[in-house]
Amino acid sequence: MKTPVPPEPVLALDRLSVRFRMRGGRYVAAVSDATLVLAPGECLALVGESGCGKSVLASALLGLLPGNAETAGSARLADGTDLLALDERTLARSIRGRRVGLVPQSPAAHLTPVRTVRSHLEETVRELTGTGRAELRSAAEAAADRAAFPATHLDLHPHELSGGLAQRAATALALIGDAPLLLADEPTTGLDRDLVHRTVDELRAHTRDAGRALLMITHDLAAAHRIADTVAVMYAGRIVETAPAGAFFGAPGPRHPYARGLLEALPERAFTPIPGAPPELGALPPGCAFAARCARADSRCRAERPALTEGVACHHA
Question: Cα dihedral sign for 39, 71, 61, 260?
C-alpha cells in the first residue's frame, strides 16, 4: 500500500524577515526569521504583546508595508507562489481577496467614508464572485449575516458604526471571496463575548471548508483557545514557541518562559503580570530578548540568542 502524500501547505513561511530603514541609515528589525507552516484546514493563532511584529508579518504577506520596509525570506502558497516576490499589480489583481483574504486591524480605516456598508459588500461580491446585479442585494445581506452584521445597519456609513460593527463589516468583506488563506488581525476587537464566540466559530467553519487555512493574530487568548489548532508565540520580532493548541492551553503547557507568563497573566489563572516591558526593536540585546524579564536568565541567555529548536527558542526549555 502506498503511503498517502500529505497535501501541500496552504502557506509556508521560511525565515521571513522585515526591517524598516530609518533616518541616518539605521534599521529596525520588526520581524526576524519567522518560519511557519499552515496546513489545509488549520487555524494558527499568532499571539504576543503589542509591538512584537505580528501585524507587520501579516502586512508583509499582502504587500501592505510602507515604502521604507525591506523583506527577506519567502512566503509560499500551495502552488509555490512566493507572496514576497510579487509586484503591486499582481497582488492587487490576483492575490488580495481572491487567494488571501484579510480582516484588517483598525477596520474603519479601510472602509471608504462616503459609501455605505451595503455598497462595500455589493461591490466586493460583484468583483470576487461575478454575481449579477439582480442577486447583489441578497448576496450582500448573506455575507453580512455570516459575520453577524445586522441587516438593519447595512445602509450606514463607516463613521456611523461602532468599533464592533466596523469589525464585523470587515469580517464580512474578508469572507466573501472564500480565499484559501485568511489573515485575521485582531478579528474580535470591540466585540462582546457572545459575538466573539460567533465570530471565531464562523472563522473556524470557514477554515474547515474546502481545506482553507486561517492565520489569526490576537491578544484574546480565550478566542485563540476556542479556535486554534496551533499556537505560535511572538516576542520582540521573533517566534519563540509553536505548539499544538491542546498542549499549549492544557498539559504540558507552554515551554518558553514568556509564553507561560502570558497564560499566568490571565484573570482566570494566576493573574500574575510579566514584570518589565519588551525591548525596543531598534535596540535589541545580543542574547535572548526576554532575558531582562526572565527569572531563569543566566549569562548564556544574555550573551547568546537561542534558536527555535523543536518548537521553542529557550536555552532552558
Answer: positive
Count of CB atoms situated within 10 Å of the CB of 8: 13
Query: Has this prediction a pTM greater than 0.85?
Result: yes
Inter-CA distances, 157 with 101, 126, 160, 162, 166, Å: 22, 20, 5, 11, 10
Q: What is the pLDDT along the chain (317 residues), one digit of tens a residue?
A: 566 666 799 999 999 999 999 998 899 999 999 999 999 999 999 999 989 999 999 999 999 999 999 999 999 999 999 999 999 999 999 999 999 999 998 888 889 999 999 999 999 999 999 888 889 999 999 999 999 999 999 999 999 999 889 999 999 999 999 999 999 999 998 888 888 998 999 999 988 877 899 999 998 999 999 999 999 999 999 999 999 999 999 999 999 999 999 999 888 877 888 999 999 998 899 999 999 999 999 999 999 999 999 999 999 98
